[in-house]
What we know:
Strand content: under 5%
Number of strands: 0
Shape: globular
CATH architecture: Up-down Bundle
CATH class: Mainly Alpha
Mean pLDDT: 96
CATH superfamily: AhpD-like
Number of helices: 7
Low-confidence stretches: none
Number of domains: 1
Amino acid sequence: MSLEALRAALPDYAKDLKLNLGSLAADPALTPRQRAGTFVASALAARNAEVIRALVAEFGPELGPEALNAAKAAAAIMSMNNVYYRFTHLLGGDYPRMPAGLRMNIMARPGVDKVDFELWSLAVSAINGCGMCMQSHERAVVQAGLSREQVQAAVRIAAVVQAVAVTLEGESALG
């Protein structure tokens, strides 16, 4: 499945999502690799098989094996971190000061430029709703030289990919 097939699978009431998918796929705010990795990591975080297949088929070739692996790793590690750090943030008390005790080695050596991995982690954190992680990754990418517009572009991709996944899941449930 391709991006166009994914857009075609959306119902008429989701026309805005169709349009947004098309425009974000060509948004010049991000490098092609940043954009492709954001789509892939966001698809994995959105957890819809149809969306994952379509967006990995569309954007995976732009990444190459190492960057594709890094985008997958960003979705995987942030799925763990978003739960843990959202917990420590929301409960507070002693939890934020306690060592996490979770392995996160991929974050130190992701196999791609650190700023790209941080950007993909930010997009996944936006989908998963972890404010602490969003703040941390946004700070990291801005310190690395990305603009607020680039940050916004990545989160716009995450938002649209999540909305597409929710819409397709809803349609599937309705039969």
